[in-house]
Amino acid sequence: MNEEITRxxxxxxxxxxxxxxxxxxxxxxxxxxxxxxxENMGAERASLIVLDGSxxxxxxxxxxxxxxxPHTVEQMQDVVTSGLAGWVVQKKKSVLIHNTNxxxxxxxxxxxxxxxxxxxxxxxxPLMARDTLVGVLTxxxxxxxxxxxxxxxxxxxxxxxxxxxxxxxxxxxxxxxAHHRYxxxxxxSIDPIFITSMEGEIIEANHQAALTTGIDQNELPMMMISDLxxxxxxxxxxxxxxxxxxxxxTYESILTCRKCDKIPVEVHVSTINIQxxxxxxxxxxxxxxxxxxxxxxxxxxxxxxxDLRSPLANIISSLExxxxxxxxxxxxxxxxxxxxSTRSSExxxxxxxxxxxxxxxxxxxxxxxxxxxxxxxxxxxxxETILPNANSKELDIEKMVLGxxxxxxxxxxxxxxxxxxxxxxxxxxxxQNSKITVGAKLNGDQVTMWVEDHGPGIPVxxxxxxxxxxxxxxxxxxxxxxxxxxxxxxxxxxxxxxxIWVENVTEGGSRFILTLSAAV
Length: 520
Description:
The protein is of the alpha+beta class and 520 residues long. The protein has 11 helices and 18 strands.
């Protein structure tokens, strides 16, 4: 008899194992496991409930008198939080009850007849996968002392197989869900998206890609990504893999369209992994409006500084004539007004000159007015220019020139304006009664200059962006402006073959640093 039971049990285990290997559909897995494990047992009812990571039921199969019956998630929630199944879920231990009337963990179901006080047999087994509880199996028989130790062990063996199968089915569902989410995002994107091989062969393109390029979605996979844009050779490697970046890079290009004008785009390309293989994802963002806006800004800037230059020159000349005609006694009101007017007009002149220089240098014109400039003297002149504003905020300007600094061969007026811009920003952002440091030192064949303040500092994500035209960092304590000062600084320094960047000071504030070649 025992041999017959053992043979039958092995056959059932084999059937369950075979059934589980044929599908990854979680609900089908549950139904088959429960049916096979209770087959020919005469069980009154049985349930196999799947739990998520937080212990909440997400799916289940329920059998009553040999028939799969409908259920709700709320019903399953009651099962796993109370009674025998609740105890097993909490303890993660298997339980065999020979007489339910003699075990306090057994709770009578609402549909049971309390008058009959019907005693039953029950077993409850946790389903584990890699030490994680993924479900609970409960079988109830209408007779007491029905389940033998062999049957109990047999159901635990089934639970072991089922736990792994359920875990695999859950992983499969997670992968499928992730795939559907990605596909939805891919197709619903307002930007053209292409998936290519590492060699640039287009494998897949979304609907927006076909709509924008005017090329049929089925035709695009027969093309190369280079057919649709000008790839910058300094940024893309021989196999289109992002050069010097393991994750992504961004650049501007022109998207070629079949039935429309070429579109200026910002391209974001990144490496992605699909089923263990490396691919490239290309996202093209139309920046036509941004380019048009930049053009309008350029035209507006050109109009402003050309129209202002002549009247400003007349104002400065008139102030000089008035200065020579009027008695300007020390500490007189007239002298103070003249100093304010002079400083304001000189500041306007520096701004207009910076605008002209930005336009000229961006057009590729060379710097022609280079001469040998004494660094220490230039720093003194820059400090003297901003000193009245600094004094009004009771700021301490500390000069720190380390050692003997050789001359630099530059356009002296342009680099002086760079230092003045940096110092004016420092004054603007510095709190009352704080300190600003301006310094210089020799590093090999490079002269390094810096301006340090103790203001709000620069957000990490904005350290590069603040050097672009018309960019201002918003936030508490950040002053308003056109966003051209630092753009001029970078263009001016780079046009001399130098570098400029910003660092945040540990104790608070910012340090703007620039380097230029020492004259030899």
